[in-house]
Design a protein that fits this description.
alpha/beta, Rossmann fold, Alpha-Beta Plaits, six-stranded mixed sheet, 12 helices, 35% helix, 31% strand, binds adenosine-5'-triphosphate, MetN_ABC_transporter-like, ATP hydrolysis activity, amino-acid transport, membrane, nucleotide-binding
């Protein structure tokens, strides 16, 4: 378990103090994939680097399985940090060393006996699907392959936590997906807790269990990815979600609306049931779809539909009440009646 307790990071520049992280507290469970989302400058990197003490927090504590890293120094801190692996947007492989030697470097740093190193390198490369690249130099690899080497190196010393700093931001969408699937596999098979920072909601939707949103160094919203997609509380969170699930109805369409425009949210199995057709059949209302999608988040369906309901106000109210009794959530977005 990872406890981030009231962590603040203040940078002292020549002219002024800059608050990178502002009193952040988070609890990340063992085996969880946790996403930290925010725009540039929100404090994501600062917070991530505080977790493994690449940045020493100005105040607050970082507890990994009960050990407070901020209280450790020297050799004890070095040992504790070996249990936290990290991967980076720009990979940071050593260009003069081969793939195998890059991984060896991490094993030697942890003082693994030399007779065990080669077998471990092979095992790690097999895990990331790159066995045949052992003698190749980083310059001869694609971006996705470089990140796989980065992942193998980060896993070298059997960490319990893997920190991912915008790990897929330099990759194309298809390669991003393959790296995210690899991270999920590592999380499941090795029971490694993953904390990732990203400005891409797609990344969070793909692999995270829980997430938080940061702004101005603070956590402004936190919860399960499913709940946050279903019911974001903050404007900024909504903005991030809109980048994945967008429901902008053009003004020209809204101008022609004669009834009420409602957003209907179906959670879980409810998404698969014919609630809307049942409603139209049972009540004296006409329904026009303006927008709709069913998203799958952690293999759970989340249906979001925007509909125009036309009819007498009383009938529309009855229809809405009926939809809600069937377990869906209805929000009136526009009323032209
Ligand atoms: N070494 C530093 N010295 C001074 N200020 C810093 C330093 N590192 C970060 N900051 C400042 O702290 C704030 C948070 O930056 P941080 O890099 O953590 O944000 P971020 O969300 O990761 O953004 P990005 O994705 O662009 O890296 C910013 O105002 C930044 O300018």
């Amino acid at each position: 378990m990872l406890h981030i307790q009231n962590v603040t990071k203040v940078y002292q520049t020549k002219k002024k103090k800059v608050v990178g992280v502002d009193h952040v507290s988070l609890t990340i469970e063992k085996g969880e994939v946790f996403g930290i989302v925010g725009y540039s400058g929100a404090g994501k990197s600062s917070l991530l680097r505080c977790i493994n003490l690449l940045e020493r927090p100005t105040s607050g504590n970082i507890l990994v399985d009960g050990t407070d890293l901020t209280k450790l120094k020297g050799e004890n801190l070095r040992r504790a940090r070996l249990k936290i692996g990290m991967i980076f947007q720009h990979f940071y492989l050593i260009s003069q060393k081969t793939v195998g030697e890059n991984i060896e470097f991490a094993l030697k740093a942890a003082e693994m006996p030399s007779n065990r190193i080669q077998a471990r390198v092979k095992e790690l490369l097999a895990m990331v699907g790159l066995e045949e690249k052992i003698d190749v130099y980083p310059a001869q690899l694609s971006g996705g392959q470089k990140q796989r080497v980065g992942i193998a190196r980060a896993l070298a010393n059997n960490p319990s936590i893997l920190l991912c700093d915008e790990a897929t931001s330099a990759l194309d969408p298809k390669t991003t997906l393959s790296i995210l699937h690899l991270l999920k596999k590592i999380n499941r098979e090795l029971d490694i807790t993953i904390v990732l920072i990203t400005h891409e909601m797609n990344v969070v939707k793909e692999i995270c269990d829980r997430m938080c949103v940061m702004q101005d160094g603070k956590v402004i919203e936190e919860g399960s990815v499913y709940d946050i997609f279903a019911n974001p509380q903050e404007l900024l969170t909504n903005e991030f979600i809109s980048s994945v699930v967008s429901f902008n109805i053009p003004e020209v369409v809204l101008k022609e609306v004669k009834g009420q425009v409602v957003k209907i949210l179906f959670k879980g199995k409810v998404a698969g049931q014919g609630i809307i057709s049942d409603t139209i059949q049972q009540f004296n209302v006409q329904g026009n779809f303006l927008h709709g999608t069913i998203e799958y988040i952690q293999e759970q369906a989340l249906g979001i539909f925007i509909m125009e309901l036309i009819g007498q106000t009383e009938d529309i109210h009855k229809a809405i009440a009926y939809i809600e009794t069937r377990g869906a959530h209805v929000e009136v977005l526009h009323n032209a009646i």
